[in-house]
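Thread: Newbie trying to understand structure tokens

Hi all, I'm a second-year student working on a class project, and my supervisor (Dr. K.) asked me to get a predicted structure for one chain before our next meeting. I've only ever worked with sequences, so writing a 3D structure as a token string is new to me. If someone could post the tokens and maybe explain what I'm looking at, I'd be very grateful. Here's the chain:
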Amino acid sequence: MPTCFYHVDAFTSRPFSGNPAVVCPLHAPADPSWMQQVASEMNVSETAFLHPLSDGDGRDFHLRWFTPTTEVELCGHATLASAHVLWEQGLVPMDDDIRFQTASGLLTVTNDDGLYTMDFPAEPAEESEVPLALGVSLGVTPTWVGRNRLDYVAELASDDTVRRLTSALQALMEVPGRGVIVTAPSSDPAFDYVCRVFGPKVGIPEDPVTGSAQCTLGPYWAGKLGQTRLTAYQCSRRGGQLIVKPAGDRVFISGQAVTTTAGELR
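---
Reply by user tm_fold:
Sure, no problem. This is what the structure looks like when written as tokens:
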């Protein structure tokens, strides 16, 4: 039986911007090696695979994420895309919350007339020494460097520096952890901060828009700016906007999504 898939642009309301994800709704668990092969074939930042929980009430699903090269513990944009597909295809009523069981625990997504909000775990970063490979890869001196269980975070002097950054990907491969997040305060009053995210070790040279990075950046900028609601712009080539609300050990991340392609795996 063919498996349906949906190509969704997340953290945007316009096709061909934001972060593309492929979503594969399944009826039952699938073989991880097959899922990895599909993700490699799709060749987007993440391909998501979900199936209903046998003991759920119709809005409970198991969710896994694969990059072209490996499975990852946490992914924001493909979670947003997965919820979008479930609502858009009528698999879950529009007014119902969706609950995903994942490697990072329970993640909930709500729908407010097309603005989706994800309830994610906070992943605050602790100040850290700068690894030699990080300094080499960035080619600039950060004003602050921190690390959490997933990534390094580097604040740079300005958003212009973040935008102009050309990282040395081979050097980034030597930085411990999943990837590197760079950030700076925004000079555009429409946003509080900007960011970019590099993850060549997990098969993503640069991620277009990264929901999971806000689990770190939200608490960081909330503390630095004294705000409980933040607007962020990820200034990759495709670009994307996020609303971020840190709340203790959780972070609420909001954005939109649009489906660009639907097809079948045969």
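A couple of things are worth pointing out once you decode it. Residues 35 and 224 are 40 Å apart (CA to CA). The first helix runs from residue 32 to 42. Feel free to ask follow-ups in this thread.
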